[in-house]
Amino acid sequence: MKILQIKFKNINSLKGEHLIDFESEPLKSNALFAITGPTGSGKSTLLDVICLALFNRVPRMGKLSKGEIARSGSVLTRHQKQAFAQVTYQCKSGKFISHWDIQYNRNNNLNDYEMQLKNLMTNEEMDLKKSEVPPKNEELIGLTYEQFIKSILLAQGEFSKFLKASDNDRKQILEQITGTEIYRKIGMLAYEKAKLVNSKIDLDLQRISDLQEKLKQEDEVSELKFQLSEANARKKEKSDVLAQLKSQIDFEEKRKKLVSKIESHQKEKSKLFQLQTDFKEKHSTKLEKHQKTQAFAEDLQAWEQQKKQLIDVEKNKASIQLQLKNLKKQELEYLEKVTKLIQHPVEANLVVQSLEDFRKKVVAIDLELNDARKTFDIQQKPVKEKLQDLGVKNNLKNIDETLHRLKEHQQKWQSDLQKASDFLKQHHSIIENLKEVTSAINQKIEFSLEAKQLEQRKIQLDKKKSEVGSALENLKKSFEVNQQELRLQEKELITAKTKLENLQLKWNNQQLIQHFEDHRKKLQKGEECPLCGSVEHPFIQEPVVFESDLEIKINQQKKALQQLEKEVQKLQNSVASQNKDIDNKEKQIKDLEAELASIRHQWKLDFNQLQQEKKQHTWEEFVEVLKEIQLQFKEKEEVEKKLAQLSNLFSELNDLKSLLQKGQELRKKLDAIYQGKDVEKEVSELKSVWEKNQQQQFTKKEDLAKLDEQLKDLKSAFDKLESNLLNSAQSAGFSSIEESVSARMKERDFQELLNQKNKLDSQLKVAHQNLKNAQDQLEEMKQDFGEQDLTDLLAKKEENTLALEALDKQIIEFSNQLLTQNQLLKEIESLQKRVEEEKQKSEKWLLLNEIIGDARGAKFNNFAQDLTLMHLLGMANHRLTKLNDRYQMDRPQKGEGEDLVAIDLHMGSERRSVKTLSGGETFMLSLALALALSDLASQNVKIDSLFIDEGFGTLDPETLDQTLDTLERLQAESNKTIGIISHVDALKERIQTQIQLTKNGQGYSSLKVVN
């Protein structure tokens, strides 16, 4: 993997946009270069940019979010709204650009960060979510983030600590920097797995012992089988007797039902006969009369229709006469309204013309008034805008009042101008050398506010450091308490599981007994049980006692077990979380100390001069003085601008006053002839209703003439029909037409009565036949069977039923005992088999626990870290040989303590603790370890870019030269791009190609590449 280009904007102290192109000169020809600059100038920021663009993480802070950036003020350069980091890299999959950016929105809220990944081979952006970009970079590069910062970004401080740490601390540091904590987890998992296996086996063995105590002896089982056979035999005898009794009882019950049925049929027949008689008395006459009118029914219907039509026509004639009268009345009302509108009398035939003349006159005056109003509106708009710009309250319908207010404001502005001029003269010394007052004062205010925030930030950090230290102590105490509580809860969990299994077995047995309850009720004394063959049934009379709340107890135990499991899981999570929190707190304290040192340095650079300028004022007071100067200067400019605008405004207001007077005169002229709102609408409505009234009168008169003609024709036809119909009615026996009409029924009513008559006849015939059939059936039954006493039969049936129930109870009891015995034997056999299978299946876990398992995972982790250390020291000694042929590193032997050993080959292979080495010697060994870890972390990935951060300040000139020779040789042999981050002057002189960072006086830095 090789980094080709770094591009970024507004990251930490590096304000603005910057580009470092390793494919362009001078970096292309000089692959060994230095990154130089004073402390705090942003050297390590270049490494932050790489990690940020690839993984959204930086080595000193970890994974980033917008909340963390906003809260800590990190990454984004202060007072800037947008930042980005971009890296172009090459790997075996091709060339790619990874981009990260963040910015503030227009509401001054920080948006969430965005990430994109582009394939330069296809020149297409990959379709990835921002959270998917870091994992994709890891996949393409072939290194995780942790491997990346250990193989490409080498921080010397980590390896110096590792070199001089104690044995336990060294193993923890090695575990951390190599990411091999998996071995500790494997040891802990082996221990936990073996513990769980042993717990399950012990639980099954205890269960087997409990079940064996419940088993019956062989003689007890034989006795149970004999009793079951006796009970079954007695049950068979009783069942035969009971079946015969049931047949006799069924016959007697059928006979009684038939007698009752005959009585019911006799009642039904009498009821129907009475209904038939009542129907004839009530409806027979009505039916006969209706049938007489059937011959001239159509003529009767026509007579009724013509009679109704005559009445309707006469009613229509009266209605039209009334409407014509009302229309005449409306005509007079409309004529009165027209006279009132045009203000003089008018004849009916001249109404429309008089209304039109009046409308034209009013419209002409109104148009002239509108022209005057439009002119006023056009001229008043710019005047109104000027007055609003000046902040003068205006009412242009009262020009005199507005002129008076404008003069008052003129006097006030002249007074304000004088006050502002006097104030600025008092502070002449502050602004006399300022070229652009507003921007210069803004800059002083901005730096004053920054100084105040920096003071507050230091106080907050001191307080936070104290709080984090206190929280760390509390976390460690809570961690120990939770570990003890977890062990207790795990023991309770095993006990709860055993209790639940016992309750479940008891419930299964009870369900089995309940299943045979119906059979128990059928058992007969002396009869064999159909299930077990026993003829003795001891529980035939005694009810089986069930434990009614057993299922409730099982549910309660399940809930208790679930709760325990949740508590155990919660404690396990809590212990793991607290362990992680302890590490985070310790790291947080180190970060706070580093930030405090950075604040002190920044204050010295940026704010000492400003503090002298504010003198005895507080920062808040000093800012207020600056703001007041800025405010008075701005107010002076604004007042001068307002006074300059008054010259033409008075003249424009007088012109508006003349237009307003003209409009008032036209308004009076219009009001004299018309006070309405809309003359067009009012005249149009009057014309419309007048013309409509005249048309309606004409139409009604025509309708009235037509009705007179129609009435004459109808009367002639009706008289002829009435004469013929009277003859027909009298022939049928009716005295008049009206009498024959009243005899008529509705056809639906006639058919309904006819249907009722036929239905009653049919029902009476069926009732008679049903009665005869029932009487014949009763006679047949008396001939086939003799009568018996039903009460005596029922008593015998009850006696035999009780005897069968007692036998059933005995059979179920014996069967349940035998079934329980079989279940116990099967369960014991199943448990024994499960124990053997568990032992065979888990043999590897038990063996693994003996070899590597323990509660904290230390046994296997120590073994793994020893192997890793041997491998790492071998690779480091290979690197060290090229750096300096004097030393080699080795693990301590017996009697040499816990420290790593340095072997001095120039002193007869003398072995001594690495703690006795000088600073330069320590750096040499640390650098060898760092390069070795880079080789170890990237075994499967070719690394073509390497950055080494600090550590060169401890070297003497000779060792520094030797180290640089080695790095140059390493670069030449491997063709790597190697960047060395340092502020050592000798290194700057030796390495000509440099990325130089310099600080300015405002807390920002600049960057340039030199050769």
Q: How would you portray this structure in words?
A:
The chain is of the alpha+beta class. 70% of the residues lie in helices and 9% in strands. The strands form four sheets. Strands 2-1-6-7-8-9 form a six-stranded antiparallel β-sheet. Strands 10-15-16-3-17-18 form a six-stranded mixed β-sheet, with helices on both faces. The model has no long low-confidence stretch (mean pLDDT 79).
What is the topological layout?
Blueprint: E1 2-11, E2 14-21, E3 32-36, H1 43-55, E4 57-58, E5 62-63, H2 66-72, E6 82-91, E7 94-103, E8 114-119, E9 124-125, H3 133-141, H4 145-151, E10 153-155, H5 156-164, H6 167-178, H7 182-214, H8 218-292, H9 297-342, H10 351-390, H11 399-426, H12 428-431, H13 437-515, H14 517-522, E11 527-528, H15 550-606, H16 608-614, H17 619-644, H18 649-673, H19 679-731, H20 737-743, H21 747-784, H22 790-841, H23 843-852, H24 858-883, E12 887-890, E13 901-904, E14 910-913, H25 919-937, E15 945-949, H26 957-974, E16 977-981, H27 985-990, E17 994-999, E18 1005-1010
Parallel strand pairs: 3-16, 3-17, 10-15, 15-16
Antiparallel strand pairs: 1-2, 1-6, 4-5, 6-7, 7-8, 8-9, 12-13, 13-14, 17-18
